[in-house]
Amino acid sequence: MTAYWCETAWLTGGLARRVRMVVGGGTIRQLEVDVAPQPEDVRLTGVTLPGMANTHSHVFHRALRGRVNGTGGNFWSWREQMYAVAAELNPDTYLMLARAVFAEMVLAGFTLVGEFHYVHHRPGGKPFGDPNVMGLALRQAAEDAGIRMTLLDTCYLEGGLSGAGHVELHPGQRRFSDGTVDAWAARMSARRPESDRVRLGAAIHSVRAVRREDLPKVVAAAKGLPLHVHLSEQHGENHACRLFYGCTPTELLDEAGALGGHVTAIHATHATERDVELLGGTGTGACFCPTTERDLADGIGPARALSDAGATLSLGSDQHVVIDPFEELRGVEMHERLLTNERDRFSATDLVHAATFNGYRALGWSDGGHLSKGALADFITVRADTVNTAGSRPEQIVYSCVASDVSTVVVGGDVVVSEGRHRLGDVGRLLGGAIERVVGGPAS
């Protein structure tokens, strides 16, 4: 048993001072408020928050950071560059890259990641000897980096969707596809069972990548698991879906039974008013990835409208142009300000809840993402005396802090980051080495 005494902590009821948490067996066993520290307590100076959930991640996209700007284009041209990186991955390089990126996430304050995993096979589509070896690399990487993970095994069968119908797989997409829903389901069911740090989920890549008649089959195969899906990230997806299917992507998912409390729609950037009603009315979650959505010129999604309609908001860093949970949570609020010319569309409590408990719930970990007795012992401490945070009130520190202000990260009672240093050592060096193995040296 280890006791942590927190100068200030963000509990389920809000901020509290002089909080003592006793941790044992990976959970919070005792929690007291307004108490003095004991001599043996680990003292956490600053503001202690629940661990942050990165609800949507494509870990290998991190290799593109700083290499794909300056040449114009849009989401669709960026996607070609992403395929080129995917083509270089094998189980060894995937493990090396994912370990480093997951460590970067933990340094930033993320204690759980939802990995939207679709790099299943060899380039060209031939399975590895173990058809789940790439997923096993991700599991090992998460364990090494000290982060919890929900592995969202993704069904990806078609190359895209136009007004004339679905198109064949691009050569760069072939390694993502199992060919049929049945083959995907069979491979997915052969994954290793869950552990205390890894849980399993499923994903529909998008309505572009899975045909109308196949959507209900994916839903059936994923029964009982968290189910995630990219939704209306681009105008082009909505336009093609209307032309070919006569409805929006959200309406198509609703028809297939692919909405509900166990489902999370990623982005929902171009959801219509009717889409918002459907998502909110079915209790479907919505994961926003503000740094990615602006980097790829996707647009600004209807976060406030979705929340008001009943959708639960969570956050992700997606392509990892930035790995910083505070930048993502602020992004939701700042984008709303740009749309409405009004401030404080979401309160600090709303934003923290989206970044913590909502994300944990969306990934199947409702026993975490909050500081209370019996909860998973996942928490982080943000320094209040840095050049970013000095002078900030504790209840507003999430508006001023950045990832580098995180001093301590505890996952399942294990200290993974102490005094701003990850237990693996120099994470920048790990990233540099891993990215060079995948794409070569710095871009010229």
Strand order, largest beta sheet: 3-2-1-4-15-16-17-18
CA radius of gyration: 21 Å
CATH 2nd-level architecture of the largest domain: Alpha-Beta Barrel
Low-confidence stretches: none
Residue fraction in strands:
15-25%
Structural class: alpha/beta
Number of domains: 2
Task: State the main characteristics.
13 helices, 8-stranded parallel β-sheet, TIM Barrel, Urease, subunit C, domain 1, 444 residues
Please provide a brief summary of the model.
With 444 residues, the chain is α/β, with parallel strands linked by helices.
Structure explained in plain terms:
This protein is of the alpha/beta class. It folds into two domains: about 80 residues, Urease, subunit C, domain 1 (Roll), CATH 2.30.40.10; about 300 residues, Alpha-Beta Barrel (TIM Barrel), CATH 3.20.20. Helix content is about 30%, strand content about 25%.
Task: Draw up the topology in text.
Blueprint: E1 2-11, E2 14-24, E3 27-33, E4 42-50, E5 52-57, H1 75-86, H2 91-108, E6 110-117, H3 133-145, E7 148-155, E8 160-162, E9 165-167, H4 181-189, E10 198-204, H5 215-221, E11 227-231, H6 235-245, H7 249-255, E12 263-267, H8 273-281, E13 285-288, H9 290-295, H10 303-309, E14 313-315, H11 325-340, H12 348-362, E15 379-382, E16 406-411, E17 414-418, E18 421-422, H13 427-439
Parallel strand pairs: 1-4, 5-6, 6-7, 7-10, 10-11, 11-12, 12-13, 13-14
Antiparallel strand pairs: 1-2, 2-3, 4-15, 8-9, 15-16, 16-17, 17-18
Helix pairs in contact: 2-3, 2-13, 8-10, 11-12
